[in-house]
Model the fold of this input.
Amino acid sequence: MNTSIISDLSDAVPLCEKLHLYLKPIAKVNISVALPKLKVAGQTISNWEVMEKVKGMCTPYQFTLLRVSKSTLEFVRFEGELENKSLVSTFISMLDGKHIKLSGFPALLKVSCGECKVPFPTRHDWDAFFRDSKDFDETQAGERPDTVHLKNVPCKFFTERTKENVSEDLVRYAFLSFGEILNIDIPMLDPYRAEVSGAGNFQTFSFGSRLNFELFVQYKEYIGFAKCMDALKGRKIVMKESDGKALAATIKVDFDKTKHLSQQSIQHRALEKQKIEKLQEARENEKRKEREAAQRKIDEEKRREEEIAHEQDERRKKREEKRRKKRREKRELEQEQRLAHRIAKEERKLLLAQRKLESIRLISDLLDRVKADAQQTEVEKLEREVAEKVEAERKKKEEELKKKKEKEERKREKMRKKEMEMKSRLLKRKLEEDYKRGEKRRKNAIKKLHSGKPNLSSAVVVRSPDVTPR
Done:
């Protein structure tokens, strides 16, 4: 990558303050370290160790970038980039003529340091080029020193926030400060440029991704071209971020030597572009026809497949309907048979139930008649027995009562009233007990009768005798 993050913008000059673009001098130093002769087979010297030693000699200052530019058996050369141009002399004084000691080597290694000259064309270079070239007409735009060719420019510096591609308007606005611009060409923005024949061998984007791009800026006057070249000489483009840091990019600047923006080249690219567009259109039409034919073929095959599938589906539906009809008829027949069997079974059950009910009624009538006759006989017999017992008891009681009365009559002269009351109470109590005993005997008799002949009840009502004491 050709970009690095910097924080010191004290020596930067504005290129376009609205776009936060600045020009900062390139501060580079070349560091050479002489290597000792290797006397032991297999012995090596680590470039990383040498680099760390060099970094340690510059403490507290640091390199923004330090890399190996060349390595041989006699020396190793580093290219170091510094934060500020004013630090070049400081680093040279700290490194030039000094020595470092590597582990495993007794001899000290001498360090040489000097400012790195950035290659850049001078005014004499482009004047001599256009003066000595016989194929250039300095009266025509694009065939004279008026076009600046820039490479490795970060796309991020000239891209709007809402877009992805480089904006030509931002490029024009940035370089308009040096003079009136006649034309700008950014090959990366032309999708047909890679196919245009005779358009020159240029790179539209960096390797691997669209991070960098190249552009041609053609000024209407020579003074604009000269100002732009002088401003870009030995400088890198810096874009200031919102957090105070800045992103610096080392770009390659040269004057155009290929008549890229001459009228003839522009027309040639336009004609080639038209040819490519027509060829592209013809290819698109051919592809479209092929796609349409393929689509028609696919549609036809799809239609045939749909028809076949529809026919198969219809046949399948008919088969399924036929099977459903057979199953339905079979179910209906089975249901009718089950229903008829159930009806016959219910009718038989009903007939048996009716016969059973008639038999029960007939037996019940017979039993009722037998039961009624037996009950009537038992009741009459029980009534006669009870009546006889009651009569015997009554007679016995009357005799006993008569005897008691006779006995009391012999004693009533003395205590007639008192004895009469006591006799009356005793007699009454005795009658009640006798009645209870008789009632108990009657209940026992009825119970015995019921245990042998159920549902029989006594038809005799026994009343207690009404005894009125005298």
Q: What stands out?
A: Residues 197-209, 456-462 have pLDDT under 50 and may be disordered. The radius of gyration is 69 Å.
